[in-house]
Amino acid sequence: MKLRLKHRFTGFTLDLALEAGSGITALFGRSGAGKSTIINAVAGLLRPDEGQLEVAGETLMDTARGIHMPPHKRRFGTVFQDARLFPHLSVGQNLDFGTRYAPDGTRVPRGDVIELLGLSALLERAPNTLSGGEKQRVALGRALLSAPRMLLMDEPLASLDTTRKNEILPYLEQLRDGPLRLPILYVSHAVEEITRLADILVVLEGGQIAVQGPLRDVMSDPAAVPLIGVREAGAVIEATVQSHDPDGLSTLKLAVGQLVLPGVQAAVGARVRLRIKAQDVMIARTKPENISALNVLPATVTAIQIGSGPGAALTLDIGGAHILARITRRAVTELDLRVGSSCFAVLKSTAIAPSSIGR
Amino acid sequence: MTLDSVAWDALRLSLWVAVWATLIAVPLALWVAWILARKEFWGKSLLNAAVHLPLVLPPVVTGYVLLVLFSPTAPAGAALATIGLTLAFKWTGAVLAAIVMGFPLMVRAMRLAIEAVDPKIEDAAATLGASRASVFARITLPLVAPGILAGAVMGFAKAMGEFGATITFVANIPGQTQTLPIAIWTALQIPGGEGKAAAMALLSCAVALGAIFLSEWLARRVATRISGAP
Fold first, then answer.
1. Is residue B228 scored above 50 in pLDDT?
2. Which fold has domain A2-227?
3. What is the ipTM of this complex?
């Protein structure tokens, strides 16, 4: 999918060019950054001031040439923040509505979707009797059954509480890694969702794309820290579950070294991705002893980004993987940290919430 | 207190006129309600005013306007006459009067129902591949159904009770334009006709009650369907 878009709002102009291929492309930006406008323009629900949309060589929209394919012909199944289930139809009928318009030969097996999303117990229920999380699962199932060429998700978890969110995220991970392999454009302002789901991350700022690239690259780029938000920014790394220990902790194997974290919800041998928030990482020049933090990793500073305030962001190389650390400028000076300095990254086990660990 | 053939003729005519008026007015009212609820265009408030005018005008004036527009010598009346449709002093004219008088009530009920349907739900249906027509038939129409029903019941009741515009436009011809209310009024004009009038008034009440029960029953059926209960 190739999109070019220009749309004026009072106050700012959305002006961007975007490409999304296989996997999950996440569009990250603050509320009011124009994310929903992008989704609506792609889905065909909004006519932008200027824009082109091309999918696999087919032009779906080109304002200059007066092309505007109506939404039902575009086939971008969309999951909205408010599930938008049809209130007069049961869950099963809502799902069937998706199937009804799927082009012949592209039908997704209904049973597979019901199983994937755990909907079998809900089929007879009316939408207004469902919880928020259940509604979103039904909305997702309905969109999948319409056999879309791409799935659009507009803040699908934003109206759910943390528990419900954590209940749905594994389904989305399964969808990403499962046999359907549907390309997804996923819009969110929640860093946690994005770091768990995205393959490609696009960060919007002031109506434009500030940075885009593979999730790991963007998240470990110290220059992106202010865009992500200093309290939320943090590199995403991959690890393998090595053991679950009797005291409730789990040991994860990194390329070099290991991490000890509180109970990880994955089997031994499973690959997990986790975000290590930059602000949770401390730096020591010498190996600290008699310290409560269980994770002390030898590291090399590969980049230093001095912020506009008192802070600084450091990129650390720990055996080939990159993590970010956010410390003060004063600490940079006092510890005499430079690019190439060797040091130790210190991370409390409890700093990593189980919900920020995904597959 | 007896019901003679005049009373039964009047009842039959009233029902006939009311059924025709309702059948013709419902799709029209739905269309106008749709436009008023969903579209923005120049002259919208003018259309709105025109629709509501019969509600505020004295019915005699509405009847007079119809007479002026649709008498066989008037342009509109003459145009309809060429396709074999005469309205003045015919039951067809009584249907038109009933439509015009009931229209504002129908449009109001339907417009409220349409405004209660979130267009975002229709958008969602469109992204799933449903064309505009399919969205209307499968999503909008079922959700608006209670409003359509309410509007139809109001229009029917108005048509059953319409007097002023009807008698002005199509006069008082037994078997042709003498509807039940007009027959009651006629009976009251004749000395000693009170008993006949009372009998017809009771008949009128019975029909009205029947209509209410029928509409309640229909509304319940629609409501169960809409709530999605099996």
1. no
2. Rossmann fold (3.40.50)
3. 0.84
